[in-house]
Amino acid sequence: MLNEKSRSSEAMYRLMGRLHPSRGYRETIIAFKRFKAANPSAKARLVIDSFSEDSSIKGVKRVRLRDDIDVVLWNPLREVKSGLISPADVLSEVAKKYVQSSYVLLPYTWYQFIEPPLTLLEALATGSFVVASDIVAPFVNNGIVYEVKRRSIIEDLTKTFEYLYEIYDSDYYRSTRAKAYEYALRNFSPEVSERVLGEVLG
Length: 202
Hints:
The protein has helices spanning 25-38, 76-81, 87-100, 118-125, 153-167, 171-187, 192-201; strands spanning 11-16, 44-51, 60-66, 69-74, 103-106, 130-133, 145-148. It is 42% helix and 19% strand. Helix 1 packs across helix 5.
């Protein structure tokens, strides 16, 4: 159980990426439910935030699985092709999602590419506190990404949710976010997201 503490704002855990089994969203939901079952007073919310390829989606579709778990679906390709928004608007919205999150979750259960996922680059570039599985975290090997093990991902995530809740807004939490941003400034070109997003949006 968590140590009771007064807190005015809730901790938001946000999983970014497409709704594909390899992204670990199912395991994340199970782990979060276990965490909240053991700590019902915890002020914490899980948001599964996904670009969707469903052409029927107009604007942003929000599905509330329960009071503390939301799934957000957005089809930016449709929006851009319709002329409703620009690629720059999409980048701005994506950056805002990262900045507003307490933690960004990248619990990949499978990943085969030699380049890091765009979500990892974006999260670090916005100074996010990143939690990633051991197939993604090694792309950043300086300790600024909190790592969970794929072989026991539900158990690891359940414990991680509790630990992250305990350290939320601590000096360590704030310094980790600052280090993520500094790492991105040193290692990533500012054009990375724009180039990749441009390829996706055509």
